[in-house]
Design goal:
single chain
Length: 126
């Protein structure tokens, strides 16, 4: 079994920055792709970013390109979501997820992910 624990959420003003962390345990973290999703109240869960096991390949939803990055530290079994220039529309619960299939390099579809964290709330005020 895999456990994912997110942290780093909070309240920030528009234009500010936050860094979310996702600590993984229970298996060989460095072998699998990771991703971040978010869900705002009344809206469907949305893909945000993904990173391959090596960290070489990343992919972002258009709305966060140039503002968010998804680095990972395999030595610490941790993936991050660095969020800069935050906007009020970034307000959501953010979820970390891990792919269970080593064949998948990166993935933007939620159904590709087998393990999910409990989420951390990010609120951006105007």
């Amino acid at each position: 079994q895999v456990q994912l624990v997110e942290s780093g959420g909070g309240l920030v003003q528009a234009g500010g920055s936050l860094r979310l962390s996702c600590a993984a345990s229970g298996r060989t973290f460095s072998s699998y792709a990771m991703g971040w999703f978010r869900q705002a109240p009344g809206k469907e869960r949305e893909f945000v970013a993904t990173i391959s096991w090596s960290g070489v390949n990343t992919y972002y939803v258009d709305s966060v390109k140039g503002r968010f990055t998804i680095p990972r530290d395999n030595a610490k079994n941790t993936v991050y979501l660095q969020m800069n220039s935050l906007k009020t529309e970034d307000t959501a619960a953010y979820y970390c997820a891990a792919v269970g299939d080593a064949v998948i390099t990166i993935a933007s579809m939620a159904r590709r992910y087998d393990y999910w964290g409990q989420g951390t709330q990010v609120t951006v005020s105007s």
